[in-house]
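FAQ: What does a multi-protein file look like?

Like this. Sequence, then tokens, then the next protein.
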Amino acid sequence: MKWTTIHPAVLNLGLQYAEWGIAGGNARCTAMLNTFARVIADYTTPPHQTLSRHLTSVVSRHVDFLNTTRALSTSMKAAVRFLKHEISVLSPDLPDEDAKAGLIAQMRSFVEAKIDFADKAIVKETLDKGKIRPGDVILTYGFSSVVNKLLLKAHARKIPFRVVVADARPKFEGQRLLASLVAAGIPCSYCLLTAVPSLTAPRPTKVILGASAVLANGSIMSRAGTASVALLARMARAPVIVCAENYKFTETLRLDAFVWNELGDSEELSAAAATMPVTSTGGHVSVLHNWRDIASLKLLNLHYDITPAEDVTLIISESGFIPPSSAYMVFKEIEQNVSLA
């Protein structure tokens, strides 16, 4: 497919997605809508065309391009559906400039309501209901923007607690969360995913995780490694709390991570592997440096995994506290409210 008609801002955004310069469902969704606002601002309806029909095809073309740079997240798909719906209900009699201004305002409102306000509501509900208590040792994994906001706000409320940040290669996203928490003065420990079963001092009292999507059966799709953390927590009888905005709830059902997943670059695993000394040069090379020469070896770099609903104690969204078994009911209620709006 040729991308000669793609807006320069979208080309730049796609490059940032591909290089993981922008990562995380909320960050990617916000960046996409902000970029589409520029596309719409620069858009001109061709002669003998209507804005509502032609602009939809323009948006679809740009979405297809972004999907080639990196698979769209559940949150991004929800935002795209919202934008296309808003375009489809535009009155043909509305002047183009007014229509474009209205669409840009609607996209800004989406970010404010579905992400910014939602995160504030999740943080407030979690803290007001005492889900983080004095003396807690909280285990989290990777980086989640809403979990980061929650922990920073709990610290601002003078609640004494500790955080254990678990992480994994090749992205080591937990280091971003660790840097944020340490900068705020929150006592933290850092470990790799493989060390989580051995955690005894301090022993986590609860686990708080983010999500890429909440599936119809209450399972959680999140960064690969999350399912292991949740399973270990259940075995240790520590509650597992998942923070997820309403727009991440979906009617999609996946029983495991192999039904659908996003494949990462295999070379990332090679580059992040342990090293061994090279006596001839005195340097070190990855133990997987020659993996392509081994016919029977394939490196599989999956970005997501599926945490079963039985390993999740509670889901917290802006709608309140939700048991995993009610995830589909919440999705249908959200969809009904959108259709009535």
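And here is the next protein:
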Amino acid sequence: MLQKNATTGQVAGGESSTTPSPDSNSVPNLEAVEENRPKEEDMNTSNGTSSQQSPQQPKRILKSNDTDVRQLLAFSLPSRTKWGYLVIIFLVQVSMNFNTTLYSNGISGMSQEFRISEDTARWGAAAFLIAYAFGCELWAPWSEEYGRRIVLQLSLGLVNVFGILVTFAPNFQSVLIGRTFGGLMTAGGSVTLAVIADLFHHNDPWFQYATLFIVAASVGGSILGPLVGAPVEMKLNWRWCMGIQVIFGVVVQLLHLIFVKETRATVILNRAAKRMRSRGKDVYGPGELGHKRVDWREFATIWMRPFRFFLTEPIVLALSLLSGFSDALIFMFIQSFTFIYPTQWGFGTLAMSATFVPLFVGYVIAYISFLPAIRRNIHMRKRDPSNQHALYEDRLWWLLYTAPGLPIGLLIFAFTTGLHVHWIGSMVATCLIGITNFAIYMATIDYMLRAYGPYAASATGGNGWARDFLAGVLTPVAIPMYRNLGIFNATMTLFGIACALTVGVYFTYYYGPTLREKSKFAQSLAEEEKNFPQGVVDYVPDLSGSRAGSRRVTPAGSRANSPPRRAPGPAPDARRNSMATARHAVSDFLTVPLGHHR
């Protein structure tokens, strides 16, 4: 993979400019351009291409801080339009999570029609969650390459198609197939949350409020299923539990198609460059230069990006595991409702749906409680913009006070259900657990959106993978665990795990700076931001697996576009600035084997 020449400003397939940008750091050193040009010609000659026949001229690449295109980006949209987009993204996220839980209300009817046990029927819920975990990871990087809008449209459409298969399934095998592929086709919060990073600059006070809003959709969509599903289960055939998901999904997809435009900066820049070339300007978008052929190795690299983040970025790993185990505990806890309340207090179908109301109340309380916490963080950043603690770890501050609610809630639930006291006690415990669930998800997502900016989809994909995979794997074993261990012992087991998770919250908060230092890509993005006074970093050119990072800086179809072998050269000298150092770090971090560009 070619590297960026720090003195010329020329990037292999990502960013080069002969016109000064508003950022003074991006003005090219013309002497260095002339000094290094023979080396480029030698490289072309060594590959059988004469520099005289196909001279390589630096092409102007549009950047998001260029004054002539900045007003086209989603950052510059009116506030009313941004929040209009967010309302529809809210509905998209609700529909995705609605699909995970409404299925449970069809289990009884499904087991009767297909003559299977209810425990077997629950594997349809588990299959969706496990596949959903991988869907979050697989869709996320494509939204960074081709745009949020097309990815969400494809995802919603395919989910609806497989939802129809489940609705009219002739047997349980068809249900499992439809649920598995439906989960795999679900893009999830990794893409919807990344839209926030497209719409708001990370220093914009509304950035965190928008995050709070979409997080509410994610957790709220999960409890909408049981609330809606109870009357459907009582009055209608089980297939309506599946059909309602499809109807809701189609309505949301149409709203998104009609009202939401593309927000991803690089995609907007590519389109703007095409329009400018039609008017005679020789400019290119960040993803336009180079060969356009299908490169399956590049596809594999793009798909692997979220998994690499999860495995090699300590921030992503720590926060994702914290959020994932928390969500898995709560899913197991919720699954116990169908075992505890009917046997302990004789709850019927409608009364069972009411057991989820305390979770909703907990989410509302958590939402309101985060408003002053966000204002506090905004004030700290304004007072000292260079304070790294305020930029990152302080986003976890309110979690320090809400995290203990998870073990405390489970402890109260264990005693109130095990000692046969009034059911209201268990409802109070459920409310506490709801507050903590919301707080953990909000705090971890807020941190990762700030740390990974334009690549937030890949970063938050790890969070989604951990939450959905662990919940999917553990959901089917919840009721057998409660049946075998008993209500008190099973809940106390969850309590012990919750205590360990709570310790993890404090560990992450106090050792956050160390985790960030070891997170190579997050540090590279932070270095990149320093070179953009306006704070807009829409891509890192040398990121392996990105289209910008794999394009040559010559137009498609030219002989000079043939990818040369990398020529040996001296190590970077002291003249290389921090931007070049950051980009080299990114290249080392996500390097693919030689021959990737063939």
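Q: Is there any per-entry metadata?
A: Some entries carry free-text notes. For the entry above: The beta strands are 60-61, 283-284.
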